[in-house]
């Protein structure tokens, strides 16, 4: 039975070019990636190809991954930090079929990590590549809908409008209310959207030893952050950049340094907080860390019902 499945998988792979895209398309995307690496934060247009899934499901990230992946790579795919989400499982299965590469759920075992909405909690290392799925690459789009004007603003580095928006947050709420896609200055030159990751993950982008590639299929844009690149979050001297903090730790592994998801556990509205990064949480539990709702601990009734402070 196993041989039959392996033979079927082999026949399936033979029906596709390695990593699905044709070699000419991959060369075109690699040239765009090289240009993006040479000018950190610059949005480089590319000829986005039709993919076997709809826009909004990660077509840009898949095309970038298909262009840089090799037969000896090990791929990890996460969605909101989880390896078992529908999007992550589908993309992982797709590359396993069209490229025949190894896949993993371990961050430190992967050579390429494709992600949506999160940066893994486990620190990345040199030699790894993280590919972000990006729905909206233009950080100025909500302020200026005209593409011609945003291009001029990038060309002249006129980013005062973004500072005004952050200041309006302070005037209205008393603090900068942007919680995701928090704008950053890359290498002191280009304003960049770090994809829809929470601002909790922004510090992981700066000076990372890994190569960071951003692909937007619908907008046909690629940009990049090379290893050990300076990435600065926009803020003010009297309102410095701050990340979210939780009053409580992960209910399963007890981690107090990770990004937490709030989960409703029953019809009465009781909640628990768990690590968004499933691999990080599982690794900690394997190491013996136990949270308040871990094995042999208190029931859900003792869980808090507030999220952040």
Automatic annotation (TrEMBL):
Enzyme class: lyase
Domain of life from the UniProt record: Bacteria
UniProtKB keywords: 4Fe-4S, Iron, Iron-sulfur, Lyase, Metal-binding, Plasmid, S-adenosyl-L-methionine
Region (Disordered) location: 285-309
Residue ranges of coiled coil: none
Enzyme Commission numbers on file: 4.7.1.1
Compositional bias (Basic and acidic residues): 285-296
A molecular-function term among this protein's GO annotations: metal ion binding
GO biological process, one term: organic phosphonate catabolic process
Presence of keyword Lyase: yes
Catalytic activity: alpha-D-ribose 1-methylphosphonate 5-phosphate + AH2 + S-adenosyl-L-methionine = alpha-D-ribose 1,2-cyclic phosphate 5-phosphate + methane + 5'-deoxyadenosine + L-methionine + A + H(+)
Purpose: Catalyzes the breakage of the C-P bond in alpha-D-ribose 1-methylphosphonate 5-phosphate (PRPn) forming alpha-D-ribose.
Family: Belongs to the PhnJ family.
Name this polypeptide is given: Alpha-D-ribose 1-methylphosphonate 5-phosphate C-P lyase
Protein source organism: Sinorhizobium mexicanum
